[in-house]
Amino acid sequence: MKVAVVGATGMVGSVMLKVLEERNFPLTELIPVASERSVGKKIVFANKEYEIVGLEKAVSMKPEIAIFSAGGDTSLEWAPRFAEVGTTVIDNSSAWRMNPENKLVIPEINANLLSKTDKIIANPNCSTIQLLMALKPLHDKYSIKRVVVSTYQSITGTGVKAVQQLENEYAGESGEMAYPYPIHRNALPHCDVFQDNGYTKEEMKLSNETKKILGDDSVNVTATAIRIPVVGGHSESVNIEFNKEFDEGEVRKLLSDFPGITVQDNPAVNTYPMPIYAEGKDDVFVGRIRRDYSQPNTLNMWIVADNLRKGAATNAVQIAEYLIENKLV
């Protein structure tokens, strides 16, 4: 089982390697892939040294699985090249997510849709993954009509450049800017690029990807995505209107019983999800579960997850595990 990690030296790529090692992923050979400036450098994985190779070399090595985290342009150009030699690609960029030919997968929700013919599988957006993990069991029971979500997103979602900007601002130093404004002591209502409709790409991903993953175009999602000076993970304030009446106790049980969800919801002792506790963990944490008394059949929740793990690396590795367990590669 040869596995290529494309973008191995990036922020998500390095977490990908860590997750593969932690989960004792059954690979026989790792192929770390990065840009030309990193080719020839060495990385250590599971106490063994591996040399970083370029994309052309990686394709020629014909890995069974290639996990991409190298940006949309790289994925559009190289994922088909890997697929042509029989490799199954799991892509972490937005390049293939809304293509009708490609499955958009959260393993706990819809991995059962995968088959041997799926050679390019899309990993959803980080904010979508944690949102859908909490929505899925509730949608199955009560049927969701509408979701209003405001995100409070970690700078790690932007990458190393954003982390460096925040560190520079903490230290009172000038440097390269990942954002158009300072992020220290600030909140930017601007994640990804603005579209003609006034929403950002990030906000539209939450809407479009939700429909595709749930397989239900009747679920309406409206989003506002905000970048905040946090590194531990993304947080989401979520208001859900159901088509049916619900019971709060049953909501908590449905969430608690869903794999990959941890309910942290005891306001009496100040227990609720926070990025500082989610960092480095694979679960999605849900709390502040309460009825919205302003209208019928409506619930409020607060959802937090480490965007580099379940929001990216862990979800991709779980897809790869499913493929192997079900002999789809």
TrEMBL record:
<feature type="binding site">
    <location>
        <position position="227"/>
    </location>
    <ligand>
        <name>substrate</name>
    </ligand>
</feature>
<dbReference type="InterPro" id="IPR012280">
    <property type="entry name" value="Semialdhyde_DH_dimer_dom"/>
</dbReference>
<dbReference type="GO" id="GO:0071266">
    <property type="term" value="P:'de novo' L-methionine biosynthetic process"/>
</dbReference>
<dbReference type="GO" id="GO:0046983">
    <property type="term" value="F:protein dimerization activity"/>
</dbReference>
<dbReference type="GO" id="GO:0019877">
    <property type="term" value="P:diaminopimelate biosynthetic process"/>
</dbReference>
<feature type="binding site">
    <location>
        <position position="307"/>
    </location>
    <ligand>
        <name>NADP(+)</name>
    </ligand>
</feature>
<comment type="subunit">
    <text>Homodimer.</text>
</comment>
<feature type="domain" description="Semialdehyde dehydrogenase NAD-binding">
    <location>
        <begin position="2"/>
        <end position="117"/>
    </location>
</feature>
<feature type="binding site">
    <location>
        <position position="153"/>
    </location>
    <ligand>
        <name>substrate</name>
    </ligand>
</feature>
<comment type="function">
    <text>Catalyzes the NADPH-dependent formation of L-aspartate-semialdehyde (L-ASA) by the reductive dephosphorylation of L-aspartyl-4-phosphate.</text>
</comment>
<feature type="active site" description="Acyl-thioester intermediate">
    <location>
        <position position="126"/>
    </location>
</feature>
<feature type="active site" description="Proton acceptor">
    <location>
        <position position="234"/>
    </location>
</feature>
<dbReference type="GO" id="GO:0050661">
    <property type="term" value="F:NADP binding"/>
</dbReference>
<keyword id="KW-0521">NADP</keyword>
<feature type="binding site">
    <location>
        <position position="97"/>
    </location>
    <ligand>
        <name>phosphate</name>
    </ligand>
</feature>
<dbReference type="Pfam" id="PF01118">
    <property type="entry name" value="Semialdhyde_dh"/>
</dbReference>
<keyword id="KW-0457">Lysine biosynthesis</keyword>
<dbReference type="GO" id="GO:0009088">
    <property type="term" value="P:threonine biosynthetic process"/>
</dbReference>
<comment type="similarity">
    <text>Belongs to the aspartate-semialdehyde dehydrogenase family.</text>
</comment>
<dbReference type="InterPro" id="IPR000534">
    <property type="entry name" value="Semialdehyde_DH_NAD-bd"/>
</dbReference>
<dbReference type="GO" id="GO:0009097">
    <property type="term" value="P:isoleucine biosynthetic process"/>
</dbReference>
<dbReference type="InterPro" id="IPR012080">
    <property type="entry name" value="Asp_semialdehyde_DH"/>
</dbReference>
<keyword id="KW-0486">Methionine biosynthesis</keyword>
<keyword id="KW-0028">Amino-acid biosynthesis</keyword>
<dbReference type="InterPro" id="IPR036291">
    <property type="entry name" value="NAD(P)-bd_dom_sf"/>
</dbReference>
<comment type="pathway">
    <text>Amino-acid biosynthesis; L-methionine biosynthesis via de novo pathway; L-homoserine from L-aspartate: step 2/3.</text>
</comment>
<dbReference type="GO" id="GO:0009089">
    <property type="term" value="P:lysine biosynthetic process via diaminopimelate"/>
</dbReference>
<protein>
    <recommendedName>
        <fullName>Aspartate-semialdehyde dehydrogenase</fullName>
        <ecNumber>1.2.1.11</ecNumber>
    </recommendedName>
</protein>
<keyword id="KW-0220">Diaminopimelate biosynthesis</keyword>
<dbReference type="GO" id="GO:0051287">
    <property type="term" value="F:NAD binding"/>
</dbReference>
<comment type="pathway">
    <text>Amino-acid biosynthesis; L-lysine biosynthesis via DAP pathway; (S)-tetrahydrodipicolinate from L-aspartate: step 2/4.</text>
</comment>
<dbReference type="GO" id="GO:0004073">
    <property type="term" value="F:aspartate-semialdehyde dehydrogenase activity"/>
</dbReference>
<dbReference type="Pfam" id="PF02774">
    <property type="entry name" value="Semialdhyde_dhC"/>
</dbReference>
<feature type="binding site">
    <location>
        <begin position="37"/>
        <end position="38"/>
    </location>
    <ligand>
        <name>NADP(+)</name>
    </ligand>
</feature>
<keyword id="KW-0791">Threonine biosynthesis</keyword>
<keyword id="KW-0560">Oxidoreductase</keyword>
<dbReference type="InterPro" id="IPR005986">
    <property type="entry name" value="Asp_semialdehyde_DH_beta"/>
</dbReference>
<feature type="binding site">
    <location>
        <begin position="9"/>
        <end position="12"/>
    </location>
    <ligand>
        <name>NADP(+)</name>
    </ligand>
</feature>
